[in-house]
Specification:
The complex is a heterodimer of chains A (346) and B (306).
Chain A (H helix, E strand, L loop, with lengths): L2 H24 L1 H4 L20 E4 L2 E14 L4 E16 L2 E5 L18 H37 L1 H16 L2 H10 L7 H31 L3 H8 L4 H8 L4 H24 L11 H8 L2 H6 L5 H18 L1 H11 L13
Antiparallel strand pairs in A: 1-2, 2-3, 3-4
Helix pairs in contact in A: 1-3, 1-12, 3-4, 3-6, 3-8, 3-9, 4-6, 5-6, 6-9, 9-10, 9-12, 9-13, 10-12
Chain B lengths: L1 H32 L15 H11 L5 H13 L13 H36 L4 H14 L3 H15 L10 H28 L1 H8 L4 H38 L5 H10 L3 H29 L2 H5 L1
Helix pairs in contact in B: 1-11, 4-5, 4-7, 4-9, 4-11, 5-7, 6-7, 6-9, 7-9, 9-11, 10-11
Classes of the chains: A alpha+beta (346), B mainly alpha (306).
C-alpha cells in the first residue's frame, strides 16, 4: 500500500458514509416501509425486527416473524416463530414492506406511540439534512457578500462590518439560534419552521465565512492584477468580481465544515422543543422521547437518531479533517496552479 | 514591557464590558419586542382585562421598550436585575444559583479536557509514528465527531443499562464527561499539530545542537512555543462549550443557565432572559479575557499587535 493511498482511506470511508446517508434521505419516501406518523396498535416500544432467511432449517426468501405482545403492562414482546411473514418488494410504491397488513415491518422497532422508528428516521433525515444544507448555503451567501464587501472596500466599511461580524462570532451559536427562535411564536407550521430555522442558521453561521472571505479578498486586493484592473478603470463591483474567485477554495472547506455544526444545531433546537413538531419529526424531535431514562431502559433503539447524527458528523470529519483532503479541496478549486500563492506580497 | 501588558489588559477589559452590555441589551430588546408577553397567556384563562392590565403594570411591561432598557441599565448599577415573572423572585438570586452550576461544570470540563488533551497532544505531535499516537489518533477522530448531546445520551444509556456511572440529578459525571471528551480530543489534535510545527522549527534544532536534553527540549521549549496557537483557541472553546452544554443540561437535568434561559424564553420572562444573557456573556467575555492574558504572557508580541 503506497503512503498516499494509505492516507486516502479515511476520505473514502467518510464520503461513503455521507453519500449513503444523503442518498437514503433523498429516497426516503420509497425506502421507508411505513408512514412516519402511522401508529400501529400494540406496537409501543416494540423491539427491532430481525430479517431472517432460515425457517425450520430451510433457506427462504427474506422474511420476519410476527411480534406478539406477551405482557401488555411490561411491554414485553415475543416472536411467533410458527409462521414466517414474507417481505414484499416493490409493492404499493415502497421498496420493501411486510406482506401482512397486521404485521408492520419495524426494522428499528416502535416508539412510545407504536410508530415505525426506521421510517421516522428516514423522513427525519430529509428535514434535518435539508434545513442544514439550506442554512449552510445561506450562511455562505451572506458571508461571501459581507466578507467580499469588507475586504474589497477596506477603510471604514471594513471596520464597521468586521465589528458586527466579531460581535456575532463571539456569541455561542446554539444560544443565538435559541434566543432568536424563542422570540418568535412558538407554534408554527412545518414549512414555516423549515424556512425559519434555515434563516436562523444562515444568520448564526455567516460571520465565520465572512471573516475568511474578507481575509482572502483583503490580500488579493493588493496584488498586481487588482492594481492593474483598478488602473484600467474597473469599478468596485467589477473589481470584486475579479477578487472573489480567490475565496472559492475556502468556501468549499467552509461548506463542508458547516454541515456538522448546523446539523448539531438543528438537533439541539428541535430537542429543546423549539424546532420541528412530533407529526413531522426531525432527528432532534425524535430524541425528546428517546432521552428519558425510562425509554432508554425499555427501548434503547429509540436513540437511533443520535447514532445517525454521529455517523454524519464522523463522515464529514473524515472527509474534511485529513490534511490531504483539505489540500485537494483548497488547491483543486483554486483559480491558480498550486504554488502560485507563494509569491510574496508587496 | 509590563506597562504594555497592563494597558493591553485594560483595553481588553473595556471591550469585554462593552460586549456584555451589548449582548444583554440586545436580548432584552428582542424579548421585549417579541410577539406575546408573560401576561398574554392569562387572556386564555378567562381573567378579566383589569387584572391583566394590573399585572402588566406590576411586571413593568406597560412601559415603552426604550424606557425598559433605560430602567434596566439603571437597575444594573444597583445590581438589581428585576423580578422574574415566572418564579416571582429577584432575577439576580436565580441567576447566581444557576450560574454557579454552569461555572462549576465548565471549569471541571476545561480542567479535564486540558489535563488529558494537552499532554497527549505533545506526545503524539513529537512522535507521530509512536505507539501513543497509534492508539490516540483514531480515538480522537471518533471523539471529535461525537457531539456533546450524542455523548451525553450514550453515557446515559451506558449508565442506565450497567449502573456503573451515577445518574442521580445533580451528579457531575455524565455532563462533565460528555462535554470534556470531545473537547479533550479537539485539544489533542490542535496541540499535536502545533507541537509538530514547533519541533521542526530551526530554533529547536539549534537548541538540540547545543545539547539540551530531549525531554526538556520537548516539554519546556516546544511546549511553550506551541502554547500560543492553542491558547488562541481557548476563547472559541468557551463559546462552543456553552453551545454544547445547552443540550447536555437538558439531557442530564443539570440545573444550569441553559435550561433557565430556555424556560425564560418560552415564558417570555423579559427580565430573566436579560439576566441570563448578561451572565452568559460575562462568562464568555471572562473566558476570552483569560485566554488573551495567558496568550500575552506566553508571547509578548500579542500585546503589541492588539
Amino acid at each position: 500500500m503506497t503512503p498516499s493511498r494509505k492516507r486516502r482511506w479515511p476520505v473514502v470511508l467518510g464520503l461513503t458514509l455521507v453519500g449513503t446517508i444523503a442518498l437514503v434521505a433523498l429516497l426516503a419516501p420509497v425506502l421507508a416501509p411505513n408512514g412516519a406518523s402511522e401508529m400501529f396498535p400494540d406496537r409501543a416500544y416494540a423491539p427491532p425486527m430481525r430479517v431472517r432467511v432460515f425457517h425450520e432449517g430451510s433457506l427462504r426468501a427474506p422474511f420476519v416473524y410476527r411480534q406478539v405482545l406477551a405482557d401488555r403492562l411490561m411491554r414485553e414482546y415475543r416472536e411467533d416463530t410458527s409462521a414466517p411473514v414474507p417481505l414484499e418488494w416493490f409493492a404499493n410504491g415502497r421498496v420493501v414492506s411486510s406482506g401482512d397488513a397486521t404485521t408492520p415491518l419495524l426494522l428499528l422497532g416502535g416508539d412510545a406511540l407504536g410508530r415505525d422508528i426506521f421510517s421516522r428516521l428516514l423522513t427525519g433525515a430529509r428535514l434535518s439534512l435539508g434545513v442544514t444544507l439550506a442554512g449552510a448555503l445561506g450562511a455562505l451567501f451572506i458571508g461571501t457578500l459581507v466578507g467580499g464587501l469588507a475586504g474589497s472596500a477596506g477603510g471604514g466599511t471594513d471596520s464597521a462590518l468586521m465589528f458586527v461580524t466579531d460581535f456575532l462570532l463571539a456569541l455561542p451559536g446554539a444560544y443565538l439560534v435559541l434566543v432568536l427562535r424563542g422570540f418568535l411564536p412558538l407554534v408554527l407550521s412545518q414549512g414555516v419552521v423549515f424556512g425559519l430555522l434555515a434563516a436562523l442558521f444562515a444568520f448564526a453561521a455567516w460571520p465565520h465565512a465572512a471573516r475568511g472571505v474578507r481575509a482572502i479578498v483583503a490580500v488579493e486586493r493588493r496584488r498586481d492584477y487588482a492594481e492593474a484592473a483598478r488602473a484600467l478603470g474597473a469599478g468596485r463591483f467589477r473589481l470584486a468580481a475579479h477578487l472573489m474567485p480567490a475565496a472559492r477554495g475556502f468556501l468549499a472547506v467552509e461548506a463542508v465544515l458547516l454541515v456538522p455544526a448546523l446539523l448539531v444545531a438543528e438537533t439541539t433546537v428541535s430537542y429543546l422543543g423549539l424546532g420541528f413538531t412530533d407529526a413531522n419529526p426531525s432527528w432532534g424531535t425524535m430524541l425528546i422521547d428517546a432521552a428519558s431514562l425510562n425509554a432508554m431502559r425499555q427501548a434503547p433503539w429509540m436513540l437511533a437518531p443520535a447514532a445517525a447524527l454521529f455517523l454524519v458528523v464522523l463522515g464529514v470529519q473524515l472527509v474534511a479533517s485529513t490534511p490531504a483532503s483539505r489540500q485537494t479541496l483548497l488547491v483543486g478549486k483554486a483559480p491558480w496552479p498550486s504554488g502560485g500563492t507563494a509569491e510574496p506580497l508587496k | 514591557m509590563t506597562s504594555g501588558l497592563a494597558s493591553f489588559v485594560i483595553r481588553r477589559l473595556a471591550a469585554a464590558c462593552l460586549f456584555v452590555l451589548m449582548v444583554s441589551a440586545s436580548a432584552l430588546m428582542l424579548v421585549r419586542l417579541a410577539p406575546g408577553d408573560a401576561v398574554s397567556q392569562l387572556t386564555f384563562t378567562g381573567v378579566d382585562q383589569a387584572t391583566i392590565d394590573a399585572t402588566r403594570v406590576r411586571l413593568g411591561l406597560d412601559r415603552p421598550p426604550l424606557v425598559t432598557l433605560r430602567d434596566w441599565f439603571a437597575g444594573l448599577l444597583r445590581f438589581d436585575l428585576g423580578t422574574s415573572s415566572q418564579y416571582g423572585q429577584p432575577v439576580a438570586g436565580l441567576i447566581a444559583e444557576r450560574a454557579w452550576h454552569t461555572a462549576r461544570l465548565g471549569a471541571i470540563v476545561l480542567l479535564i479536557a486540558s489535563a488529558i488533551g494537552l499532554p497527549l497532544g505533545i506526545i503524539t505531535g513529537s512522535r507521530p509514528g509512536g505507539w501513543v499516537a497509534a492508539i490516540t489518533t483514531p480515538i480522537s477522530i471518533v471523539l471529535v465527531a461525537c457531539p456533546p448531546l450524542v455523548g451525553a445520551l450514550a453515557l446515559l444509556l451506558f449508565a442506565a443499562s450497567t449502573g456503573l456511572i451515577s445518574i442521580e440529578p445533580g451528579r457531575l459525571a455524565v455532563p462533565a464527561l460528555a462535554l470534556s471528551l470531545p473537547l479533550a480530543a479537539m485539544l489533542e489534535r490542535l496541540q499535536s499539530r502545533a507541537v509538530a510545527d514547533a519541533v521542526a522549527a530551526p530554533d529547536l534544532v539549534a537548541a538540540a545542537a547545543r545539547g539540551i536534553p530531549p525531554g526538556r527540549l520537548l516539554w519546556v521549549h516546544a511546549a511553550r512555543q506551541s502554547l500560543g496557537p492553542v491558547l488562541g483557541i481557548y476563547g472559541i472553546v468557551i463559546g462552543s462549550l456553552f453551545s454544547g452544554s445547552l443540550a447536555v443540561e437538558f439531557a442530564t437535568s443539570w440545573p444550569g443557565l441553559g435550561r433557565l434561559m430556555r424556560d425564560a424564553l418560552v415564558a417570555r420572562d423579559v427580565w430573566l432572559v436579560a439576566g441570563c444573557a448578561l451572565a452568559g456573556a460575562a462568562f464568555i467575555a471572562l473566558g476570552n479575557l483569560a485566554a488573551d492574558i495567558a496568550r500575552a504572557m506566553a508571547d509578548r508580541r500579542v500585546t503589541e499587535r492588539a
